Amino acid sequence: MRYFIVNRVSGNGRGLARWSRIEPVLKERGIPYRVAFTERPGHATELAREAAKTGVRAVVAVGGDGTVNEVGNGLIGTDVPFGYIPAGSGNDFATAQGIPKDPVKALDRVLKHSPRRVDTADFGGRVMVSSIGIGFDGQVAKTVNESKWKQRWGKGSYAIGVLKELRRFQPTRVTLEVDGQVIREEGVWLIAVANVSCYGGGMKICPEAKNDDGLLDICLVRGISRWKLLRLFPLVFSGKHVNYPYVVMLRGAEIRVSAERPLVVHADGEIVGETPVIISVRPQSLTLL
Ligand SMILES: Nc1ncnc2c1ncn2[C@@H]1O[C@H](COP(=O)(O)OP(=O)(O)OP(=O)(O)O)[C@@H](O)[C@H]1O
């Protein structure tokens, strides 16, 4: 039996719309399933954790990247496979994993049932599935999540958030420790720590990131003026920003970040706190369909 967790409010109601496309298919094909609808933030983690204890064949999330994070948090450390039907506004996890945007095609992938183990990362007792963004990035995610335009502009809302925050963000001094190697940087805009290549609706922030290599990819941007950052920004959609001297790319298994002033941290697009943070890879800790 497969257990579906549907976030009705994801993607401005797309969660429910996707579910009404796939439920008839399940019925038509006589596939046994159960469904639960999330009622509040954090609920998907509780539902996934409970379902994992009952020995379901798979837990399938229907929602956006926040729902992926919550269901992932509930399944970490279990052998229960995690299926995904994208219904968010960004859907970066689906893009990175090659999961079809079409709900019936995504369902077919779930039903094909070819599990593989992927990495996640741990920070302060929580789990990140795709990426963590610190500083400018965290601030952009905060602004976007609190805005009304996320519903209206979907994927484009992150780009709008970038333009808005670009005017007010103050770069700062940051100390980064990557597997014991200490790096101190001035004028830091952002530090992204990623398991998959893109976030924020298709921004290829760590183009080489893979979630089965036991390592996290890091992108640090520093020493750049607002004006130059604005000009560099479009390059993130192709991943070409990595060739510029303002961008430092690193890779490691444990990353510690502290800053002169507290910087906002997002994990998989949801605000989770402020620096300092310690992020550790959890190799092959999630079974993905
Ligand atoms: N019933 C509910 N009411 C309000 N919020 C909910 C409910 N169920 C889940 N949530 C919250 O909705 C938030 C957004 O979900 P999700 O990220 O899946 O969608 P999205 O933001 O539209 O997609 P994306 O992150 O891909 O852009 C999550 O933080 C989740 O905790």
From TrEMBL:
<dbReference type="Pfam" id="PF19279">
    <property type="entry name" value="YegS_C"/>
</dbReference>
<dbReference type="GO" id="GO:0008654">
    <property type="term" value="P:phospholipid biosynthetic process"/>
</dbReference>
<keyword id="KW-0418">Kinase</keyword>
<dbReference type="InterPro" id="IPR001206">
    <property type="entry name" value="Diacylglycerol_kinase_cat_dom"/>
</dbReference>
<dbReference type="InterPro" id="IPR045540">
    <property type="entry name" value="YegS/DAGK_C"/>
</dbReference>
<dbReference type="GO" id="GO:0016301">
    <property type="term" value="F:kinase activity"/>
</dbReference>
<dbReference type="GO" id="GO:0046872">
    <property type="term" value="F:metal ion binding"/>
</dbReference>
<protein>
    <submittedName>
        <fullName>Lipid kinase, YegS/Rv2252/BmrU family</fullName>
    </submittedName>
</protein>
<keyword id="KW-0443">Lipid metabolism</keyword>
<dbReference type="InterPro" id="IPR050187">
    <property type="entry name" value="Lipid_Phosphate_FormReg"/>
</dbReference>
<keyword id="KW-0808">Transferase</keyword>
<dbReference type="InterPro" id="IPR017438">
    <property type="entry name" value="ATP-NAD_kinase_N"/>
</dbReference>
<keyword id="KW-0460">Magnesium</keyword>
<keyword id="KW-0067">ATP-binding</keyword>
<dbReference type="InterPro" id="IPR016064">
    <property type="entry name" value="NAD/diacylglycerol_kinase_sf"/>
</dbReference>
<keyword id="KW-1208">Phospholipid metabolism</keyword>
<dbReference type="GO" id="GO:0005886">
    <property type="term" value="C:plasma membrane"/>
</dbReference>
<dbReference type="Pfam" id="PF00781">
    <property type="entry name" value="DAGK_cat"/>
</dbReference>
<dbReference type="InterPro" id="IPR005218">
    <property type="entry name" value="Diacylglycerol/lipid_kinase"/>
</dbReference>
<feature type="domain" description="DAGKc">
    <location>
        <begin position="1"/>
        <end position="127"/>
    </location>
</feature>
<keyword id="KW-0479">Metal-binding</keyword>
<keyword id="KW-0547">Nucleotide-binding</keyword>
<comment type="similarity">
    <text>Belongs to the diacylglycerol/lipid kinase family.</text>
</comment>
<dbReference type="GO" id="GO:0005524">
    <property type="term" value="F:ATP binding"/>
</dbReference>
<keyword id="KW-0444">Lipid biosynthesis</keyword>
<keyword id="KW-0594">Phospholipid biosynthesis</keyword>
